[in-house]
Amino acid sequence: MAYTVKEIYYSLQGEGAQTGRAAVLCRFAGCNLWSGREQDRKDAKCDFCDTDFVGTDGPGGGEFATVGELAAAVAGCWREGRSPGRAGERPLVVCTGGEPLLQLDVALIDAFQGEGFEVAVESNGTLPAPGNIDWLTVSPKMPASDPALVQHRGDELKLVFPQPEIEPQDFAGLDFHHFYLQPMDGPDKQRNTVLVLEYCRSHPRWRVSLQTHKILGVA
């Protein structure tokens, strides 16, 4: 199978429990909740996406014919002038999108792990996740009761807040180790941040996730 990748670059993970950790970001092209075209946004199931995942024109992006080619590209991105990480800690690759599980499969995860990586995945939860993922983040874009949400367990649930017809407490019974609320970006970001702070104060199971890469001005 060929893999279509928007971009591959070295940076810091900006959100959730892994915030601040050095990582290779591998952004897969395509999503099942929005085409990525502005003319389709109003009809998208996720109409607030702030990410460009269309095409292969980002840094390191392209069409990769085999798992070996893509794993080698990710490994090369890590090795370019980087010193080793903490003792006993594997380098991290964050597979994101779009929706990475449209393409990411067991064979590619095995190839990343064969290059020594811990594999983290950020998914909208509408596709079942392969069992060999090391760290799974689910960021729902529909209510917990929606049949389209099929991934009910993982390492962290990161809910962009507020979203219409979605209440955080409806997800609290799912099988995740960490629960995060992240203020929705856009013109109402300041108000949304206040709402997140208020909710997390009154519901201590939830913690605040900020897009620190945007705050710091890094990719």
Indicate the CATH topology: TIM Barrel
What's the end-to-end separation, in Å? 29 Å
In one word, what is the shape? globular
Neighbour order of strands in the largest sheet: 3-1-2-4-5-6-7-8-9
Query: What is the H/E string?
Result: EEEHEHEEEEHEH
| Architecture (CATH level 2) name | Alpha-Beta Barrel
Overall residue-averaged pLDDT value: 94
The first-level CATH class name: Alpha Beta
Q: How many separate domains make up the residues?
A: 1
Strand-residue proportion: 25-35%
What about the largest sheet?
A: 9 strands, mixed
Structure commentary:
The protein has one domain (3-159): Aldolase class I (TIM Barrel), CATH 3.20.20. Helices cover 19% and strands 26% of the residues. It contains four helices and nine strands, in the order βββαβαββββαβα. It has helices at residues 67-79, 106-114, 189-202, 212-216; strands at 3-12, 22-28, 62-64, 92-96, 118-123, 135-138, 153-161, 175-183, 206-208. α1 (67-79) packs parallel to α2. The mean pLDDT is 94.
Q: How does the SSE layout of this entry go?
A:
Blueprint: E1 3-12, E2 22-28, E3 62-64, H1 67-79, E4 92-96, H2 106-114, E5 118-123, E6 135-138, E7 153-161, E8 175-183, H3 189-202, E9 206-208, H4 212-216
Parallel strand pairs: 2-4, 4-5, 5-6, 6-7, 7-8, 8-9
Antiparallel strand pairs: 1-2, 1-3
